[in-house]
Amino acid sequence: MTSEVAVLNRKGMVVAAGAFVAINLVLLRAGCATTETTTPGTRPPTSSSAPSASPRASITFTGDVGLTGAGSDPSVRCNFPVLEGMSIAVLAKPPNSTVLARVGLQSGKVKVFVGSGSGPDYHERAFEGTGVTSFDAARGAVIDSTLTETAATAGSTKGSVGALTAIRGSVECGDQTAGTSTVTITGNTAEGALVAAVLDPVRVECDASPDGDEVASSGLVRVGSTRALVAIGLSSDGAVSVDETLPSGLHRYRASGSSTITSTGAHVRADVVEQGVATPAHTLHVEGDLSCGLHAAG
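Below the sequence we write its predicted structure tokens.
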């Protein structure tokens, strides 16, 4: 799997993402929609009107039977860093309730992943187009695009997942804010050294639930001349995950017992060790504070 990667923590929050698969497998946990459903349309966000209190999305799909129609239960993530820059991530359900659509928006570009099933029975198709206008990662976008099929996530197969031919609609970010981070990352990676590297731009999100609070952040750093997307996931049991996504692939680092979560953010001080590699594994020191942005409750 290359830069098009998304990794979930134990509750379904995005803790790593690359390219337009920023929303691949995002927020699969039931009942975690963070938008208001609206009537399908293409009303663009404008600077003359005040943002709505809650983010919202109106998405209509065109394609095979079960995929054509308005998307339901939309979930919006604005100010979402990906390797190419800033994006908006949207999750929605086509009329066929067994299928999930993950939509990644950037200026002039949209990519849609349609997937069904789980584990070895997971099947997926990917489509992309150019019809995105009025794009602002902090405010919203308008989509009116024909779609052509492209490569899906490495290792996945089509199965019985249908095809999309077009997508239309609009996204408004409302009062979502990105949050802030003072976290620094120091250590050697396979691609080079990081010396007090900071995540910039960054997005930080709190997720409070009876299962345990979590904080997830993602942002961009430079490893030498290469841009990398670093996602940090913290849970109430002290576990720390760091995922570094580059055009060449993904590196995962893990530690435990090294973070403290509050209702508005978290503090982390941890040495995380690279996973799944031959020794000696790389180690990164991660330290600082995360302040969660304002997002609708999920």
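The longest strand covers residues 72-82.
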